[in-house]
What we know:
This protein is mainly beta. The protein has a single domain (2-62), classed as Ubiquitin-like (UB roll), CATH 3.10.20.30. It has one helix at 19-25; strands at residues 2-6, 9-13, 33-37, 40-41, 57-62. It has a 5-stranded mixed beta sheet, with no helix packed on it. The termini are far apart.
Amino acid sequence: MIEITLNGDRREIAADQTVTDLLQDLKLDPARVAVERNLEIIPKTTYQNVKLLSGDRLEIVYFIGGGS
């Protein structure tokens, strides 16, 4: 297990998780979120290749539709 910070909260995750794995665990659709790791936006096309490391600080923003 490793510890990351997710949207300001500390969280323990498996040591070999990728961004895709984390989004699946959180039941978030990768097409509807933006992920920032350590102040850098991660391109959606690389989510499956980006391994999360101990101490990473992640911000996940979920897009919601709406309007008139």
